[in-house]
Amino acid sequence: MQTRKIETIGVTGSGTMGSGIAQVFAQHRYCVRMTDVRQDLLDRGLDTIRGSLDRFVQKAKLTAADRDDALKKISVSTGLGELQDCDLVVEAIFEDLEAKSALLRSLDRICKPETILASNTSSISITRLAAATGRPAQFIGMHFMNPVPIMQLVEVIRGQETSDDTCRTVMNMARELDKTPVEVLDYPGFVSNRILMPMINEAIFALMEGVGSRESIDTVMRLGMNHPMGPLTLADFIGLDVCLNILRVLQEGFGDPKYRPCPLLIRMVDAGLLGKKSGRGFYDYRTPEGKC
Ligand code: CAA
Asked: Is the pTM of the predicted complex or chain greater than 0.90?
């Protein structure tokens, strides 16, 4: 079945996820307009993209010419006006309902009527975000996984009002990015985090109860289940605050105590031990000079 032509992509937010999403579209010949609230954030996002593309060139997975082409496809700006004629805009800012809703209201006002709006949220209801716009039929979840340039999955989440046309268009586009899209419904945590976060939470309970050391728990899951990272390493990689947030969404959304966050996780977040991004989580990521 014919789907809409998508050529120009907007990405709002230039952090780890936003820059990864912009990169993947640019590598597949889409014109990308990436926005953020400050130029220094955009510069950092572009540096991340350059670094990732360089890694692919070093590994001979990409030619230097293709890297340069991809970089040329990305323009950046601190205003949303540049996004008005985009065919699809992917929102990838921090996980906050109010902030996302405000941004989506602005995008709804600025973008042409045909633009599809998508959110990369990992936990907020797509139906609720769609309600901030006047185009819920053209609103959808496009949940990319970190690191976006490497991970195969895009979880495509249908909100209550998402149209078949929007869903088909986004599923086909994800395939054009050489990703594997999986369509799911809008329930708390969708599928990915509904299953991943209880596993991570259970690993933290096991650590708290002294069932095993952090290394033992991670090794059991890496070597016993062939997971690329153990659950505690993965929690550090995702961010302990993000994990806690998602567990609270699951707990509240289902009203089931089985999703209660482990007290150790809550204490670590309270202490600012957020994982890789803060330098310490279950493991210590600080350089030898930075260590106490
Ligand atoms: N750009 C380009 N290349 C990258 C890259 C990036 N950002 N990150 C990693 N790579 C490449 C490396 O260069 C390397 O390439 P080769 O195989 O050619 O050598 C390859 O990926 C593997 O990387 P590393 O050797 O550095 O390390 P690794 O083997 O441990 O792999 C990993 C790293 C791909 C991150 C792997 O550990 C992994 O898959 N971990 C699990 C990640 C995961 O579960 N992500 C989902 C998190 S949940 C989420 O995102 C959603 C949410 O809502 C919370």
From this structure: yes
